[in-house]
Amino acid sequence: MESDKDNTFNSFYTEVKEIEKRDSVLTPKQQIERLLRPGATYRNLNPFDVLQVEPDTSLEEIKKKYRRLSILVHPDKNQDDPDRAQQAFEAVNKAWKSLENEETRKKCMDIIEEAEGRTDLMLAEKRKKAKKDGKDKIPEDDPEQRKHAVYVLTMKLFADLERKRRDLAERDQEERKRKREQEIDEEEKAKAQKEWQKNFEESRQNRVNSWQNFQAQGKSKTKKLKSFKPPKNKPESR
Description:
This is DnaJ homolog subfamily C member 8. Residues 46-113 form the J domain. InterPro entries: DnaJ_domain (IPR001623), DNAJC8 (IPR042858), J_dom_sf (IPR036869). Residues 122-149, 163-238 are annotated as: Disordered. Pfam families: DnaJ. This protein is mainly alpha-helical. It folds into 2 domains: 13-100, Orthogonal Bundle (Helix Hairpins); 103-192. The chain is 78% helix and 0% strand. It is built from 8 helices and no strands. The protein has helices at residues 4-21, 28-36, 40-43, 47-51, 59-73, 82-100, 102-132, 143-227. The longest helix is centred in the C-terminal third of the chain and has 85 residues, at 143-227. The chain starts with a helix and ends in an 11-residue tail after the last helix.
């Protein structure tokens, strides 16, 4: 028996596929709604899903689809709702950049292939269990049902990858923040040390000057004492 979560997702998946079938007649507003409805944050992690193309679609065809979509949702074409149109346009643009770049496209394909492989393993186990229960088939023997299973796992894998990316980015940010705080602390210590050294040098020079002045005054007094001659005694007259 399927859980409520599975039923909700099945309903969503069916809706997505119906929208894809109507893709050629989707209006700009409908495309914006598709790209921004609840849950889009994770659904839009899959660039193939955003551009509504199959993973084995040629790059040239993907580019054509990207251009059509970007025109449909462009803010200039949707001035009655420019903010949401801008968000949708950014999602389409990000998806195209992911697939246009050879390295990121390969990463996306790796996720698709992993989802395919893991789904096949899961279905093989499911067939074994069904056979023990006396059943000849499982629902996923239907190509559309299998495709649905791959779609579900693909979304989960993209979501897992995004969570890992965010965790790494957060740790990297924390590390850079820690290093910067350490640098600021060291700079402040160096500044304080420099200020202390400057004050020490100035006070030492003042002490030296005071001592030199004191010595100079002492020598001056000594000279004055040496130059002093007492008066001669005059003989008394009788």
